[in-house]
Predict the 3D structure of the following.
Amino acid sequence: MSSNGIQVIAVTSGKGGVGKTNTSINIAASLAKQGHQVMLMDADLGLANIDVNLGLQCTFNMAHVMSGEKTLSDIIQIGPFGIQVVPAASGIYEMASLQNEQLQHLIQAFSEYNGKLDYLIIDTAAGISDNVLAFLNAAHQVIVIACDEPSSITDAYALIKVMNQRYGASRFHFIASMVKNEKEGRALYSKIERVVDHYLGATMLYLGSSPRDEQLRLANKQQKAVVQVSPMANSSRAYARMAAAVERWQPPIGLSGQVEFFVERLLQHKA
């Protein structure tokens, strides 16, 4: 695998229904639109939905890779602007709790993949299950998404707290989702950032806000990325700004920039 400086980014949330998958898809598509080679991996392994959100017909998925039946290249689907989508299984209970043998197949699959990548974006499940924590701990950057609701805020903080206290994670990025405007998004960020800084001593950086947007709802209905079908929509512009900020992140160098390193960290987490 060509892996010099691949940025592995995990997108997560403490609570479901906050726009996490939309964010993963549209940031990935925005990066690809700028000419980057992007892989988008659905890591909600038991309740996958990226393929549904993009209207992709997937005969094979991560379950077939984990079992050793298929290679990574066999299951990749092409999404908007050429993003390489790695679909996960839906409704398969066993996929929600990975075993070491399955992770070994995952390591082999990534090691054998020869495509060039600039970004690997991991759309995790919501919550603090072992699988979610494994993906977060293995990524270079973690993006936490929350909306301005008490349960979303509380669960986002709980997720950050677990990562900080169990794995020593001290740096997170934050996206305010489903807000009225940028002012409301920054206010939500400030509310959570103060608590994270005071009680955990961790750093949380503001990445952006995604507004409530009728065009985004219509794109979802069409099973399309909003940045593709409505590039001038407020949500599309917001995702483009986030992608531009991601482009400015310093890429990893050497071994820590390899995708093999990412999956080996997954295995270490399960050991």
Q: What stands out?
A: The first helix runs from residue 20 to 33.
